[in-house]
Specification:
The chain has 598 residues and is an alpha+beta fold. The protein has helices at residues 113-130, 147-151, 155-158, 162-165, 174-181, 288-303, 317-332, 344-347, 356-370, 399-419, 433-455, 462-467, 472-491, 493-504, 527-548, 554-577, and strands at 10-14, 18-23, 33-37, 43-46, 57-61, 64-70, 73-88, 91-103, 135-137, 194-205, 208-218, 242-249, 253-261, 268-269, 281-282, 305-310, 337-341, 373-376, 382-384, 388-393.
C-alpha cells in the first residue's frame, strides 16, 4: 500500500480562464487544488480560498490521464467513468469506462480551415485510442510490476509516488503525463494507466476460497497494429510484447506465475497489400544477431533464464523466419537460453489438439526448474521465486500463443494449489468443474482482449481455450473473425496505427503544420486509387448482368460474358499488383518505414 496514493475522487470545475481540479477523497479535506490556466497553460497548486467561480461548470472525475498538444493547443484528458475489476493484495483495481477530452482554447478561430480539419482528425485519433476497452489503473497499487519484482524492492521504493516507480514499458499515458511530472509536487494527481487485460475472480475448490487473477501488461515501446508493427525496433523492443502474470491469492499466501509473448525478435515486416496473407520479409541489411542480443539482454534483466517457444509453421513463408530465428539463437549459444520450435498447425491439424501434450512434455523439466513466486502473507516470507520465463510467439503472438500459455499456466496453478493444500496430491484442477470453467473463460477473455488491441478482432481458437475442444461453431467464428481482420488490417489499421503513435508521443504535432510546414495528413492519392476500383465495379456489374439477363442469341451473350469476365480478371490483377495503393497506410510515423522492411 502506498501512503501517498493518487487521489481516488476529484471534482473538475471549468471556467472561462481555468480548469480547477479539487480533491474529493475523505482524507483529502484541506488539500490544495490544482489550477490549470487555459491561456498560459501553467499548472499550479493553490489553497482553496473560494477562487472557483460559482458559474463554473462542475463534474465528477476519477483521475487525470494527462495533457496532449494538438493543432488547436493543449487538451486535458480526464477519466469520467470507471468500473471496479476487483482487489489485488487488498488494493482496488479499476477499468476505465469513459473519458473526456477538454480543449484549453475556447475556440479554433486562430486556425485556418485546413488546420481545423486536421485538428479534428488528430482529436478523433486520440478519442479512438481512449475508446479501446482495455485501460486499467489503481490509485494505491503499482499494476506495472509483477509481485516478484515488488517483493525485491526496498520499503523506500514502495513509498515513492506511483508515477516515479512505475515500469515505463507499461505506462500508456506516459506522454500525456509529461506536463505534470515536471512538477513533483503534483504527484497525487499523476495517475499511471496500464493497457492490456485484468480479471479478478473469486473461486472455490473444496470449500477453499481464493482469488484467481490474470494481468496482461501490453508494452508501449513498440506498440501498434498487426501488420504495420512487426519484429524488433533499433533498441531491441519487440512488437506486441505482453507480460502476463497469473496470481492466486490464497488465505495464507499469494503465488504468481509470469510468462511473456512478443513478435519474433528479428528485423522483419509483413506489410498489408490486399493479399489475405502477405509474405513476411526479413530485412537482409539488418544485423539480426545484434538486435536479438539487445532484446535478449533486456529480458534476462527482468526475467532470468528464457525458453523461446516458436509456434510458427515450419513450411512456407513462415519457415524463412523460423530458420533465421533458430540460427540466431544458435549463434548466441547461451546456457541460460533454449529454443523450442513446435509447428502448431501441422501437429494439431485435423482437430488433433491432444498433440499439444507433446510440447508440454518437452517443457515440463524447464517449468519445474523455473518454478513460480510464492509469498506467505502471515510473516511476508518468500517461499520461492520464479527463476526464468517462457517467451512464446507465433506469427502474430495471439491465437496459438494464448493456447500454449494457458496450458503452462494451468500446470503452474496446479502446483500452487497443491503447495497451499487446496488440492491433494493426485487431484486435478480439471476435475473441479467450477474452477476449470473460470480458468478457461478468463484465459479466453485474455486472448480476445490482446487480439482486439493488436489485430482488431477477438482471438481465434478460443473455443478450445474455453471448452478444451474444437467445434464447428468455433471454426465458423474463426472464419468470420479472419474476414473482419482482413478488412481492418487493410482498410482501417493505418488510422489506428497513427492514433497509437500520436497517443504515445511517437509523433508530436507541430503547431506550424499547414502553415510553414506541410501536414502529413494531407496526402495525394494516385489516379489508380480512384479509377481502377470504379472500372472493376463496372466490369463486375456488367458481367453479372450478362449472365443473368437472357438473350435470344446465346453466342452474343457468351461473348459478352467472356469479355466482361476477362475485363474483371485483368482489372483485379492490376489492383492486386498495386495492392499497397489501396491499403489504409499510416501517415505519421510508420509511413517512413514502408520500404525499409523493419
Amino acid at each position: 500500500m502506498v501512503e501517498d496514493a493518487v487521489y481516488r475522487a476529484l471534482k473538475l470545475h471549468i471556467s472561462q480562464d481555468k480548469f480547477y481540479i479539487e480533491p474529493r477523497d475523505q482524507q483529502s479535506v484541506g488539500d490544495q487544488i490544482l489550477e490549470i490556466d487555459r491561456v498560459t497553460h501553467e499548472l499550479s497548486l493553490a489553497d482553496n480560498e473560494g477562487q472557483i467561480p460559482p458559474s463554473a461548470e462542475s463534474r465528477d472525475i476519477f483521475g487525470i490521464l494527462g495533457i496532449i498538444n494538438l493543432l488547436a493547443g493543449p487538451y486535458l484528458v480526464v477519466i469520467t467513468k470507471k468500473t471496479l475489476v476487483g482487489l489485488v493484495k487488498g488494493n482496488e483495481v479499476w477499468k476505465i469506462k469513459g473519458t473526456d477530452v477538454l480543449a484549453f482554447p475556447r475556440a479554433t478561430l486562430h486556425l485556418t480551415e485546413k488546420q481545423q480539419r486536421n485538428n479534428t482528425t488528430y482529436l478523433s485519433m486520440v478519442q479512438s485510442v481512449l475508446q479501446t476497452d482495455s485501460f486499467y489503473f489503481s490509485c494505491t497499487y503499482d499494476l506495472t510490476h509483477t509481485l516478484q519484482r515488488l517483493s525485491r524492492t526496498s520499503p523506500d521504493f514502495l513509498q515513492m509516488p506511483l508515477f516515479e516507480r512505475a515500469d515505463p514499458r507499461f505506462v500508456w499515458n506516459g506522454h500525456l503525463l509529461r506536463p505534470l511530472v515536471v512538477q513533483p509536487e503534483l504527484h497525487k494527481f499523476i495517475l499511471p494507466v496500464m493497457h492490456g487485460f485484468i480479471s479478478v475472480t473469486s473461486c472455490v475448490i473444496k470449500q477453499n476460497t481464493f482469488d484467481f487473477i490474470l494481468i496482461s501488461r501490453r508494452s508501449c515501446l513498440r506498440a501498434g497494429t498487426r501488420f504495420f508493427v512487426r519484429g524488433l525496433d533499433s533498441e531491441g523492443n519487440a512488437a506486441n510484447f505482453i507480460e502476463t502474470e497469473q496470481i492466486a491469492q490464497f488465505e495464507s499466501g499469494t503465488c504468481s506465475f509470469v510468462q511473456i509473448r512478443g513478435s519474433i525478435p528479428l528485423y522483419w515486416s509483413q506489410r498489408p497489400n490486399l493479399k489475405y496473407k502477405p509474405a513476411p520479409l526479413l530485412n537482409q541489411r539488418a544485423d539480426h544477431r545484434a538486435g536479438f542480443n539487445l532484446h535478449l539482454d533486456k529480458q534476462r534483466v527482468y526475467y532470468g533464464d528464457l525458453v523461446l517457444i516458436n509456434l510458427i509453421d515450419q513450411v512456407g513463408g513462415e519457415k524463412v523466419l523460423g530458420d533465421r530465428f533458430k540460427e540466431t539463437v544458435r549463434t548466441v549459444g547461451l546456457s541460460s537460453l533454449r529454443y523450442e520450435p513446435f509447428d502448431f498447425h501441422k501437429e494439431c491439424s485435423k482437430m488433433r489438439w491432444e498433440r499439444l501434450s507433446i510440447l508440454m512434455d518437452r517443457l515440463s523439466e524447464d517449468q519445474v526448474k523455473f518454478g513460480y513466486f510464492s509469498l506467505r502473507d502471515k510473516d511476508g516470507q518468500i517461499e520461492s521465486e520464479q527463476r526464468g520465463v517462457f517467451r512464446t510467439n507465433c506469427i502474430d503472438s495471439l491465437d496459438r500463443t494464448n493456447v500454449v500459455q494457458s496450458l503452462l499456466a494451468r500446470r503452474s496453478l496446479q502446483a500452487q494449489c497443491e503447495e497451499y493444500e487446496v488440492l491433494s496430491m493426485g487431484e486435478r484442477i480439471e476435475d473441479c468443474a467450477g474452477m476449470e470453467t473460470v480458468f478457461k473463460n478468463v484465459w479466453a477473455d485474455n486472448a480476445d482482449a490482446c487480439s482486439v488491441q493488436y489485430a482488431g478482432t477477438g482471438a481465434l481458437k478460443t473455443d478450445f481455450t474455453r471448452t478444451g475442444k474444437r467445434s464447428s461453431f468455433g471454426l465458423l467464428k474463426d472464419g468470420i473473425n479472419s474476414g473482419i481482420r482482413y478488412f481492418k488490417n487493410n482498410f482501417v489499421d493505418g488510422f489506428r496505427q497513427d492514433s497509437i503513435d500520436l497517443f504515445l508521443g511517437n509523433y508530436v504535432v507541430d503547431p506550424n503544420e499547414g502553415i510553414s510546414k506541410p501536414s502529413p495528413l494531407e496526402t495525394q492519392r494516385d489516379w489508380r486509387f480512384i479509377f481502377l476500383p470504379l472500372i472493376l465495379f463496372l466490369g463486375f456489374s456488367m458481367f453479372i448482368i450478362s449472365v443473368l439477363i437472357p438473350s435470344t442469341d446465346y453466342g452474343v451473350q457468351f461473348l459478352y460474358v467472356l469479355f466482361w469476365g476477362a475485363a474483371v480478371m485483368v482489372t483485379l490483377y492490376v489492383v492486386l499488383y498495386f495492392g499497397n495503393e489501396y491499403v489504409d497506410q499510416p501517415r505519421l510515423v510508420q509511413v517512413q518505414l514502408k520500404d525499409k522492411n523493419v
